[in-house]
Amino acid sequence: MIEIRNVKKSYRGSWLSGKAGKEVLRGVSLTIPEGGCTGLVGGSGSGKSTLARLLLGLERPDAGEILIEGVELRKWRKEHPGKMSVVFQDYTASVNPRYTVEQILLEAVTAQTGTGGRGRKDENTDLTEQARSLLRDVNLPEHLLGHYPHELSGGQLQRVCIARAVAANPKILVLDEAISSLDVTVQEQVLELLAGLRKKYSMTYLFIAHDLQAVASICGDIYFLHQGVIEEHCACRDLSRVRSSYARSLLDSVIIF
Ligand SMILES: Nc1ncnc2c1ncn2[C@@H]1O[C@H](COP(=O)(O)OP(=O)(O)O)[C@@H](O)[C@H]1O
Ligand SMILES: [Mg+2]
Predict the structure, then answer these.
(1) Is 210 in the pocket of ligand 1 (CB under 6 A)?
(2) Domains of the chain
(3) Which residues surround ligand 2, an ion (CB under 5 A)?
(4) pLDDT digits (tens), the chain, 257 positions
(5) Which ligand 1 atom sits nearest the alpha carbon of residue 43?
(6) How far apart are the CA of 62 and the centre of ligand 2, in A?
(7) Residue 51 C-alpha to ligand 2 middle, in angstroms?
(8) Which protein residue's CA is at the shortest distance from atom 13 of ligand 1?
(9) How far is the CA of 171 from the centre of ligand 2 (A)?
(10) 24 CA → ligand 1 middle, Å
């Protein structure tokens, strides 16, 4: 489904801020099969979010190529609007605080269908029903439709973000540290929810996290990213046999924990 080939990305330094330039991705390749959940694990600053931004077309790679279903990324995105979606770690920053849950969801629905929010009455009823159905998908009660983001718990708000991400019926969902800000028990529930949604809507996931345990619990295979290089790739069932020192150190820390 997704083929990332030898992708490189550097950021220029700035004399104004005193920041040095940095090669963040140093020839990264990975293959993400259709309908699966592929994990990308790596420490803070290893380049995970940079790779996600390249995949989402928010930035361009300096070298290498990204193909989706055999088509160059930008061309594919034009041909399939809304078919790649994303959930970020920071759920508070990714919603408009002045929107109700219903408005947050309907913005995504109408962006997909092209319907404005001021249609005929029956159109509006239909839209509200779509918002309700999205809430049901993420196991939230319907009465939350009228609530504002600050009235929800972190877990509830991240579920709203997940509902919004699947509103356009995407083929690909990029989850960049999507559960990292949640309490451990809530993390488990959201992981279960994500696994269910992937099956229900036949989506392909790229699940990005620094937490190997979370990645291993939902993914079929895992790429280990360390300082901008893929150090190892393995199927989850072969996790105990990883060889690179970086993957081993991550694995050992999980076992000790
Ligand atoms: N826009 C940017 N300009 C300069 N440096 C950046 C920019 N974005 C990320 N970086 C740097 O790239 C490195 C990798 O960042 P990131 O991809 O966010 O890592 P991760 O998500 O794995 O924590 C970090 O050292 C970060 O400071
Ligand atoms: Mg990141």
Answers:
(1) no
(2) 1-83+172-257 (3.40.50.300), 91-167 (no CATH)
(3) 48-49
(4) 999 999 999 998 777 777 778 899 999 999 999 999 999 999 999 999 999 999 999 999 999 999 999 999 999 999 998 899 999 998 889 899 999 999 999 998 887 665 544 444 455 668 889 999 999 999 999 999 999 999 999 999 999 999 999 998 899 999 999 999 888 889 999 999 999 999 999 999 999 999 999 999 999 999 999 999 999 999 999 998 999 999 999 988 876 55
(5) 22
(6) 19
(7) 9
(8) 45
(9) 22
(10) 7
Tokens read off for 4: 């990332």
